[in-house]
Write a structure and sequence with these properties.
Elements (H helix, E strand, L loop, with lengths): L4 H13 L2 H8 L3 H15 L4 E4 L2 E4 L1 H25 L7 E7 L1 H18 L3 E7 L13 E4 L8 E16 H4 L14 E3 L9 H7 L7 E3 L2 H9 L5 E4 L11 E4 L8 E9 L6 H19 L1
Parallel strand pairs: 3-4, 3-5, 7-8
Antiparallel strand pairs: 1-2, 5-11, 6-9, 6-10, 6-11
Helix pairs in contact: 1-2, 1-4, 2-3
Amino acid sequence: MDISWDDARLFLAIAETGSLSEAARRLRVGQPTVSRRLAALEYTLGAALFRRSVDGAALTAAGERLVLPAKKMAEWAGELHRAAESADNSPRGLVRVTASPFASFDFLAPFAAFVAQKHPGLRLEVLSTIQYLDLARGEADLALRAKPPTNADLKLVYTLEIQNAVMVARSLKAKLPRKPTLQQLPWVAWSPPFESVPPNPQLEELIPDFAPVFTADNYLVMLAAVEAGVGAMVLGKLSHRFSRDRGLVPLDLDLGPYATSEVHLVCARSALDIPRVRKVSELLVDELERFKRK
């Protein structure tokens, strides 16, 4: 029995998302296509792989047995793709970089313009997401992450320590006490389903009965609220050459153990064998080094 990589990828997308519609979004195909291909795969195997209900798609016992082999197949497909592309000696083409919404909006978007100007043959795709994409499978080429890699298949390229600060609009600062405490500030924070994303847990630890005045599930909405003077937000003090004045100023407040954080540049171990990925990685390291020298 021959199970193609396309079928394995389809199965894995459904297994990991728990939904045919979410799997369709991940694979960038229509849901009817996912349903049709899954039915064909189950017919070939002679077994149902999922129990479908209004709540989504849950793995059957037969499906459970395929998850680990499918994951290994995905990792080897990523390796095969990178090995094939490493034969191209010219740093040209698309490089996919994934990062948090803040880093994507504030840094990677203007960095992409710099890359296009300096190397016209290179093109960046920025994947802004809270969740970590699987670099070993090739879901992205490079990642800026808050945590260093623990997977042996990933390589830590560079680490930058960042000073964090409580930022507010100038208009809000004028209304605050001269030396406000963390408890006295109106806060802007993540709403469900992202309430466990920093800095929410850290603020909950520092502030008894933490209750933000404004929440959103989108970083740009949160930032717009801070710029409008709605409340305060913890941001990294990343003054770089692409920075814009957003009318925000830091408050002199102690964030305790959360006064600093780290950004890690990570990739699959074999990704730097691809000239275009290696070149973008080098450019990113140069920019991160600039932060360190400021």
